[in-house]
C-alpha cells in the first residue's frame, strides 16, 4: 500500500501518516472498517453479577446477542470466586510477568454442556474468577417452551461435575480433584442466590486428603417467582440418597450371590480376572458396567476406526502410586479422563467401547492379562456373522480372533495368535456382564459364543440396569459429550517445524557443521506423513507411489536420500527432538556430513476431538555420494 502511494507522490516528498489516511479514505477502506466495527457495552457482566432483586435486562438486544440467553429458558449462573487452602502450593513464588508457570484449570460438565475456566497460576489461594451460564433444560418433548419451575427443577438430579487439572511448565497435565456439586440448594435459598464453599479432595490414594477450597456462588436466571422451603429441598435430596443406597445394597447382595455360584462351577475360578466393581478417581467402588455407555461423537468422528485412532492418541499413563509394590487401580470417570487427556488402559478401553456402541456395534470391554501375566483391558466386537474382533485401545490395532481347537489331532496346524492377549476373565458393556467359565481362560482357546451359558456365566440384565442405566441412581456420573479440537493444525505444524529447524541448526553448529535447508524437499515429505496417518486410521496404505516418484525426481543422480518418519502424541518440540536423537537412523540424518548436504524436516499435526493430536515428523537429507 505504502509503495503504491509513494509512486503517486513527488519523488522527494516524504510519506506522512496524513497521506496514508487520505489514500485509505479515497479507496473506501476506512468506511468499510467503520461498518465492520461493533461496539458492545459490558452491561451483561454488570447485570450478571448484580443481585437478581434488580430487574435483569433480558429484553435488551445487546444482552441476548452477547450471552446467547434464551429468555424462555431457565439458567443457573455459577461463579467461582477464588480458592484458598491449596496448601501444596504454600511455598509457590509469585510468577513474574511473562514467566511460564504451572496452572490450574477448572473443567465443568452439566447436562451435556461443557465449560473450561481460564488457566490461573498455581498458588495457595488461586485467583479463580469465572462465571458459567448453565442451562437447566428438560429433555421431555413439549416442555421446551415452558420455563422450568422450582418443583420441576427439584426433580433434576444431575450434579455439576467439576474436575480440577494442573498443567506444569512442560505442558504435562495431572488430575488434582474431581467433585460432584449438588446445586439444588439454590432452589430453597432466598432470592434464588446461594453461596457455598466446596472442599475438594484429592484423587486415587489421596482421596481422603483435602487439596483446597473453592468459593462458589449460584444464581437462578430469570429469578424464581417462588422458592421452595429448604426443608423440602433437603427431604428430596435425602430421599434420593436413600433410594440410591438401597439399589446399590441390593445389587451388592446379588453380586455376592453370583460370585458364590461362579466359584461353585470350578474352585480355580477364584484366580480369574472377573472384575465386577472398580474404584473411580475418588476411591468409590462402582459396578464396571457403569463406566461404559453408548457415546455418539456427533460430527467429530466419522467411523469406528477413526474413533479407535482418537482413543489411541490420548496419552497412556498408569495411575500414580506412592512407593513400590503393585499397580494402583484407578478407573477414571470419562470427564476426568478427557480433561487430563491421558489415562490407564481401562480408561482407553471404556471410552473406545462406548464409542463403538454409539456406532451400533456389539462391543464389550475384555478384562484379562497380556504377556507375563500383566493385567490388561481391551475391546471386543462381535459381528453378526460370528466374527470376533479385538481392538487394542492403546495402539489402535485390530485383530481377528481365530480360536485354536485343543481337541484336534496334534498334527493339525493351529492358527498362531497375532494378538498380545493371554487370558480373559470377563467381558462387559453397559447392559451385560459375563464371567468366563470355560475350562481354560486362555484367549487362544476361548470360544466367544456369549449366549452359551456353559461357557459364559451372565449376570441378570435387570440387576445391571437397576444401578447402571442412565438416571438409575444419583451416584452415577453423567457422560459428557466430546468437544471439538481447539488446536489449529497448520499453525501448530508450522510452530513445531520452526522450533525443530532451530534445534537441528544449533545441534549441527555444536558439531562444527553448517546447515542448509531445502524448502522444496521439506514440502515433498508432506504426502508421506498424510499417508502414514491414513494407514494408522484405516489400516489401508495409499499414496506411497507418488511420494517415491517425487523424491526420485528431486534427488539428482549420484546423490543419496535418507528419510526418517516418527510419530508422537504430544506437541513439545524439545522433547520430540531429544527422542529422535536417541534413534541411530535419525541421528545419522541430523548429523549428516558430506558434499552438498541439504536437510529437510516436515511436521504434520492431525487434530482429533478434545484437542488430542497425532504429530508426525519426518527428517530427511540428500547429499552427494563420494566414494
UniProtKB/TrEMBL annotation:
InterPro entries: CEP76, CEP76-C2, CEP76_C, CEP76_N, CEPT76/DRC7_peptidase-like_dom, Papain-like_cys_pep_sf. It comes from the Eukaryota. Keywords: Cytoplasm, Cytoskeleton. It is found in: Cytoplasm, Cytoskeleton, Microtubule organizing center, Centrosome, Centriole. One of its GO terms (biological process) is regulation of centriole replication. GO terms for cellular component: centriole; centrosome; protein-containing complex. Residues 1-37 form the CEP76 N-terminal domain. Residues 486-624 form the Centrosomal protein of 76 kDa C-terminal domain. Residues 68-225 form the CEP76 C2 domain. Pfam families: CEP76-C2, CEP76_C, CEP76_N, CEPT76_peptidase. Residues 329-459 form the CEP76/DRC7 peptidase-like domain. Belongs to the CEP76 family. Centrosomal protein involved in regulation of centriole duplication. Required to limit centriole duplication to once per cell cycle by preventing centriole reduplication. This is Centrosomal protein of 76 kDa. It comes from Cavia porcellus. The gene is CEP76.
Amino acid at each position: 500500500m505504502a509503495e503504491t502511494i509513494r509512486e503517486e507522490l513527488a519523488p522527494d516528498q516524504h510519506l506522512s501518516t496524513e497521506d496514508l489516511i487520505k489514500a485509505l479514505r479515497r479507496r473506501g477502506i476506512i468506511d468499510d472498517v467503520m461498518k465492520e466495527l461493533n461496539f458492545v457495552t459490558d452491561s451483561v457482566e454488570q447485570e450478571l453479577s448484580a443481585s437478581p432483586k434488580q430487574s435483569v435486562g433480558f429484553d435488551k438486544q445487546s444482552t441476548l446477542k452477547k450471552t446467547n440467553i434464551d429468555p424462555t429458558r431457565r439458567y443457573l449462573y455459577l461463579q467461582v470466586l477464588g480458592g484458598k487452602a491449596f496448601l501444596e502450593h504454600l511455598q509457590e513464588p509469585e510468577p513474574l510477568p511473562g514467566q511460564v508457570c504451572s496452572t490450574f484449570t477448572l473443567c465443568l460438565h452439566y447436562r451435556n454442556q461443557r465449560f473450561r475456566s481460564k488457566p490461573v497460576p498455581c498458588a495457595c489461594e488461586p485467583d479463580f474468577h469465572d462465571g458459567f451460564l448453565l442451562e437447566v433444560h428438560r429433555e421431555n418433548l413439549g416442555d421446551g417452551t415452558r420455563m422450568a419451575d422450582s418443583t420441576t427443577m427439584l426433580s433434576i438430579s444431575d450434579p455439576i461435575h467439576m474436575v480440577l487439572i494442573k498443567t506444569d511448565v512442560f505442558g504435562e497435565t495431572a488430575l488434582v480433584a474431581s467433585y460432584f456439586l449438588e446445586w439444588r440448594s439454590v432452589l430453597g435459598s432466598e432470592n434464588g442466590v446461594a453461596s457455598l464453599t466446596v472442599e475438594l479432595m484429592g484423587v486415587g490414594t489421596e482421596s481422603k486428603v483435602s487439596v483446597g477450597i473453592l468459593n462458589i456462588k449460584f444464581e437462578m436466571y430469570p429469578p424464581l417467582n417462588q422458592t421452595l422451603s429448604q426443608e423440602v429441598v433437603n427431604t428430596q435430596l435425602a430421599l434420593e440418597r436413600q433410594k440410591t443406597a438401597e439399589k446399590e445394597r441390593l445389587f451388592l447382595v446379588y453380586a455376592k450371590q453370583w460370585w458364590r455360584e461362579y466359584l461353585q462351577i470350578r474352585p480355580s475360578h477364584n484366580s480369574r480376572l472377573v472384575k465386577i466393581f472398580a474404584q473411580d478417581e475418588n476411591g468409590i467402588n462402582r459396578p464396571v458396567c457403569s463406566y461404559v455407555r453408548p457415546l455418539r461423537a456427533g460430527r467429530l468422528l466419522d467411523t469406528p476406526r477413526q474413533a479407535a485412532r482418537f482413543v489411541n492418541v490420548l496419552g497412556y499413563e498408569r495411575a500414580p502410586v506412592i512407593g513400590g509394590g503393585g499397580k494402583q487401580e484407578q478407573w477414571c470417570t470419562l470427564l476426568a479422563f478427557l480433561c487430563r487427556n491421558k489415562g490407564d488402559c481401562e480408561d482407553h478401553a471404556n471410552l473406545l467401547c462406548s464409542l463403538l456402541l454409539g456406532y451400533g456395534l456389539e462391543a464389550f470391554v475384555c478384562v484379562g492379562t497380556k504377556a507375563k501375566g500383566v493385567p490388561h483391558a481391551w475391546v471386543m466386537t462381535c459381528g453378526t456373522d460370528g466374527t470376533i474382533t479385538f481392538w487394542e485401545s492403546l495402539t489402535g490395532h485390530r485383530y481377528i480372533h481365530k480360536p485354536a481347537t485343543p481337541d484336534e489331532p496334534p498334527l493339525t496346524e493351529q492358527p498362531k495368535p497375532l494378538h498380545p492377549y493371554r487370558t480373559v476373565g470377563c467381558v462387559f458393556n453397559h447392559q451385560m456382564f459375563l464371567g468366563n467359565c470355560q475350562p481354560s481362560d486362555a484367549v487362544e482357546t476361548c470360544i466367544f459364543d456369549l449366549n452359551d451359558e456353559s461357557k459364559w456365566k451372565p449376570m441378570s440384565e435387570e440387576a445391571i440396569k437397576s444401578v447402571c442405566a442412565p438416571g438409575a441412581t444419583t451416584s452415577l456420573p453423567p457422560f459428557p459429550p466430546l468437544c471439538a479440537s481447539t488446536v489449529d493444525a497448520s499453525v501448530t505444524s508450522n510452530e513445531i517445524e520452526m522450533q525443530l529447524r532451530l534445534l537441528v541448526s544449533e545441534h549441527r553448529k555444536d558439531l562444527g557443521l553448517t546447515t542448509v535447508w531445502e524448502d522444496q524437499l521439506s514440502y515433498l515429505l508432506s504426502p508421506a506423513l498424510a499417508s502414514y496417518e491414513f494407514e494408522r486410521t484405516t489400516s489401508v496404505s495409499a499414496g506411497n507411489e507418488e511420494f517415491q516418484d517425487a523424491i526420485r525426481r528431486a534427488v539428482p543422480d549420484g546423490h543419496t536420500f535418507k528419510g526418517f518418519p516418527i510419530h508422537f502424541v504430544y506437541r513439545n518440540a524439545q522433547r520430540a527432538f531429544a527422542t529422535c536423537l536417541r534413534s541411530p537412523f535419525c541421528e545419522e540424518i541430523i548429523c549428516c556430513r558430506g558434499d552438498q548436504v541439504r536437510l529437510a524436516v516436515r511436521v504434520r499435526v492431525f487434530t482429533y476431538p478434545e484437542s488430542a493430536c497425532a504429530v508426525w515428523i519426518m527428517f530427511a537429507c540428500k547429499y552427494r555420494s563420494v566414494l
